[in-house]
Amino acid sequence: MRQVVLASGNAGKLREFAALLAPLGLELLPQTALGVPAAEEPFGTFLENALAKARHASRATGLPALADDSGICVEALGGRPGVWSARWSAMRREEAAAGRRAVAAPGGAGPADTDAANNAQLVADLQGQADRRAHYYCVLVLVRSPDDPQPIVADGSWYGEVLDAPRGAGGFGYDPHFLIPSVGLTAAELDAEAKNRSSHRGRAMRALVERLREGGLTQAGAA
Ligand SMILES: O=P(O)(O)OP(=O)(O)OP(=O)(O)OC[C@H]1O[C@@H](n2cnc3c(O)ncnc32)[C@H](O)[C@@H]1O
Ligand SMILES: [Mg+2]
């Protein structure tokens, strides 16, 4: 296994993966560069969505594929945005229009919202809320073929708090509003290396690499 398709269209994730995977000796090809369109993400769990994305990219390219499904889970919101993180502001608009909690599929019909719209929505959702606890969650799925009977799975979490006022220019998504209390910085105030060292994605990636090593699938014993 030398070439792997990265089953993501998110430029922020792509940047982080490029650094995380550099030591592995794998050539990582973004699916967008291979003309693979975004997969449907219709499921209520991160795991199912990641598996769907990995299979979709592997089927389209004939290559092994790595997918990431991730999001921010806020205690006071019962774990939401969760799997709806990429289109949280649209989700909340749909709920407001329906006058109740919508039952739309997590990936929804439309494209992801802008980070600014999602962040503004999250801040509005937490207005007057004292409990600011939240965590990022990431699950990674690697399939060697679209019908791989043994997908390799790893996950990671990163705990913090949601800030009303954004701080920092690094990272992507909800990072300017995600405070890591132990260092007093937001995820967007960390440099890329520091974020990868402690983030949900960094943790999941290191766990995945461990699984690959166990299975002899890294450069040393590539399949
Ligand atoms: O599905 P792909 O193509 O990978 O790209 P996406 O942006 O739609 O990705 P997800 O479906 O996994 O949605 C995850 C959302 O959660 C947020 N998110 C995930 N990881 C993050 C991180 O490290 N920092 C900030 N926000 C993050 C961000 O808003 C993402 O759009
Ligand atoms: Mg997505």
Core attributes:
single chain; 223 residues; alpha/beta; Maf protein; seven-stranded mixed sheet; 6 helices; 7 strands; globular; binds inosine 5'-triphosphate; binds magnesium ion
CATH-defined architecture: Alpha-Beta Complex
Terminal residue distance? 5 Å
Per the CATH scheme, the topology name is Maf protein
Radius of gyration over all CA atoms, rounded: 17 Å
What proportion of the residues is helical, as a percent range?
A: 25-40%
Give the amount of beta strand, in percent. Answer: 15-25%
Unreliable residue runs:
none
Q: List ligands, each type once.
A: inosine 5'-triphosphate, magnesium ion
What quaternary form is this? Answer: single chain
Query: Largest sheet, order of strands side by side?
Result: 2-1-3-4-5-6-7
Shape type = globular
